[in-house]
Amino acid sequence: MEIAVQSLSASQVAARELAERLSSHHREIEKVWENYQRQFGAVDESLSKAVQSLAEETTKQQENIARFVREVDDGCARAVTSLQSIATNLAQNTEDLGETLDDFLAKIQPPMPA
Description:
Layout: H1 2-108
């Protein structure tokens, strides 16, 4: 009987030590988790702010590009209009010059014998 009591007593001591070690490990795990939350909670918040800032800057850049494209398009339209006017004037001048040269050549050439 004494051996059984000693065995039970030893089992209780071993179970108590195991429970204390498990409690200690549990507290350590809780500390690790709290540190993780502190460390990466700030990272999540920073990442969220960075993504939001990136989205805002991307929108601004898209607006700047759209404005630039409109300005280039307007400039090209003005250039085409100007070039069209110049081309029309050149065509008229070329026609007038051709008529003047025809008149001049008709006056300086002797009449052809019939």
